[in-house]
Batch of 3 targets.
Target 1
Amino acid sequence: MDWINIALFELGGKPVLLVDLVSSLLGLTTVFLAGRNSKYNFWVGYLYTAALFFLFWSRNLYANLLLQPVSLAINVFGHWRWTHPKEEERSSEDANRLKVSMLSWPQRGFTVAAILVVALLWGWVMKTFFPANPAPYLDCCVTVLILTAQLLSALKKWDCWLAWLIVNVTQIILHVSVGNVFMPIVCGLYLANGLWSLYSWMKLYKKNG
């Protein structure tokens, strides 16, 4: 799979590979469509998961590679939920579409606590068995937060965009700290889309889906 590592151009003195560009474009398209309440975000999401699989495989990032089946399962679940709502979950504009809803404050508290507990436990495992990771707890916290944001998006919860915003800001800081140039730009686009989606999904919520 040498074609995956083809360098297309340099940015900030570092090469941007074909797999980097393809996965970034697919990821941006997925969240753009999700923010516009389009069910087609899931079809692009399947391609995005495949692209990430090749990306992590080419870089021997097997821990991240093993998470892709989980992401795929969440994507399939979300695709089903968005297109097969229960009677009380149907959008007022389209009975075949799941309406936007929100977590209650107790649910938000439970979600935050669960993220911290799982991240701490997972971080301890990574630190113990994979000591080469320079920031296991932060890495695991971001990963758990990403999976949580994906699950909340699959359930069409407005709160998913709050999680995505935290992920985007954290990733921008991480990439800038290690001298990356391309990925902070991509994460900045994710951040802009997240802010707009936060606003547009609130409008959908107020219209009862």
Target 2
Amino acid sequence: MTAIIGFDTATEETVVAAMVGGESTFEFRSGPVEGDRPAHSSELLTAVEQAVDSVGGWERVGRVVTGVGPGTYTGLRVAIATAIGIALARTTEVAGIPTLDVMARSIHIARGAEGDGPSIAVPALDARRGELFFAAYDRGGSELHPASVGSPDALAEVVSRLGGSALVAGPGAIRFRSELEALGLELAGVDDPANHLLGSAICELGDQEDRNGQGPLEPIYLRAPDAERWNRERRDGD
């Protein structure tokens, strides 16, 4: 039985996991100390090797799955470059999976364990510039609203249009908590596990037959990186 290694660095956290036959053998999550920058570059490879050791070595690994965003430009490049490096160095199948898909599955897993899971999961990531990356999914993981970038008001409008019991969770829900609460949305508590990506969710989704290991290793940005925006503004100002 082959193993799956999953990881994601689209948010400030470095998340890595391993799974064999649907059973988790390794789960790692690490975020920066307040005021520090994310340590994706120094943490990811070490955690991946630990995940591989947990399943008995690279010869047991049949697939590597990485989150491809949306998220921070630097974070996405770290994970994708690592996945490409693995693909070049080994015969292991490598695939990408949208980070919002993983965040939604993480929400349903966290709340499902409590027996009060929402009918709609709305994963929200901090997109900076006063905006969030968000989407909406039902309990089965089907997309109800595609990955988008927008203000808290835009997110609230989508939730209102969908109806049903919707839970907003993730780093963006923490970052914009006061604004989202004022809009009447149901949010996961600040310390709720639903706010964190689960590495096992990456592995689980990556093991689905319909993905077949073919997800592209292309970053999902939803908007131009800051450097590109600044260059364009500078050109326009000349």
Target 3
Amino acid sequence: MKDIALDPTTGDLLLENFDLQLVEGRDQIAQNLAIRLRFILGEWFLDTTAGVPYYTDFFIKAPNQIRIESVLKEEILDTPGVNQILSFSSNFDAQRRVYSVVFSVITTQGEITLTEELVA
């Protein structure tokens, strides 16, 4: 399956010589994982049930680490093409208000390892 490529740093459409770039295979699954982990619950008006519940579970005074990891793992496993989580670790930097996640998954296209920083 192919998708429009996004710049991994800015999230903007990836253009080369004024042409949209496409992404497929493992890169497409990795891009989809990054998008899903950054997608806030209720953000999209056409499906307010899609997304991660950041405002109710993450961006609160005393977040529950077990609940957060459970929510993120569920979102990862619900991503099309992902079969299994091989490893998962997370860390919350309270001073910077950044929640970091590092995980490896087995997909239909092979193994993928990602690091995501989710800013509170």
